Amino acid sequence: MDRSFAAVAEEWWNQQKGTWTEDHANRVWTRLRDNTFPRIGQRPIAYLQPQDVIAIVRDIEERDAMMLRNGFYRIFAAFVAMPFRLANLLTIQRLS
Q: Taking all residues of the chain, what is their mean pLDDT, rounded to a whole number?
């Protein structure tokens, strides 16, 4: 099963929110929802291309929203560390 960017982001957020104040956790979720989900939220994270990520990061940087950019990077780092990642990569390689 391919997990969407939004599903991985929500898992990451749920793991992190206990370390933040409630206001900060809500701000992080709102920024993710408003800035990334419309563009890539429903897409399988394993199939996102570098240009997909770069386009979003550039938009964020143009608005000087570095806090959002850092959270965006952390979601991808968490994804790489997840056990299902290897299975997805092997599936993608077989399909290529």
A: 76
CB-based contact 56:40 (threshold 8 Å): yes
CATH at 17: 1.10.150.130
Alpha helix (H) ranges present in 63-96? Answer: 66-81, 84-95
Q: In the structure encoding, which two tokens stand for residue 56, read together?
A: 């979003």
Q: What are phi and psi of 4, to 5 degrees?
A: -75, 160
Beta-bridged to residue 44, according to DSSP, are 4
Q: With contact defined as beta carbons under 8 Å apart, do 46 and 89 qualify?
A: yes
- Domain count of the chain? 1
Q: Give pTM, 2 decimals.
A: 0.66
CA 62 to chain centre: 19
- Which long-range contacts link 62-69 to residues 24+ away (Cβ below 8 Å)? 65/31, 65/35, 67/31, 68/31, 68/32, 68/35
Domain span at residue 82?
A: 5-95
